[in-house]
Amino acid sequence: MKIRNLGWLQIILLLIGVVFSGWTLYGESSGKFWLQLCFYGFLMFLISWLIAIYVLWIRNKRWQLIWQKRLIEILSVGAVFSVVNFGLSACNFYNRRFCAPTCRVGLNSPFASPCFYGAVIFLISLWVAIKLYKRLKKAQ
User: Fold this and answer.
1) Residue 53, burial from CB neighbour count under 10 angstroms (0-12, 13-18, 19+)
2) Domain ranges for the chain
């Protein structure tokens, strides 16, 4: 796949993450939205999406490589955040403990939770970002 196509795939994946996490945050609206874990996932997706747009449009190859590496770092943090969050929710669900901050009432499985889908989107986006970084480094 060409570098430009990988860049567009990266932008589309991160836009899906922004829309998904924003929709989830909107659905769980409360007075203090910044206390919700989905809010921080939304912020990471939004920042990552903006950086991905910048990486695609910048013409300086050196800066493109630097910003792509920063994007990988942000996506790594987001992936760890979402996987740990999902893991805690799944652990609490299967041990029938108290409901974690990510639990939704009426879920029959933690694999139906927004944290699971957010983790999948973060991990796929991270994989594409690493692949794009390697291609950019090779082209330089």
Assistant:
1) middle
2) 3-139
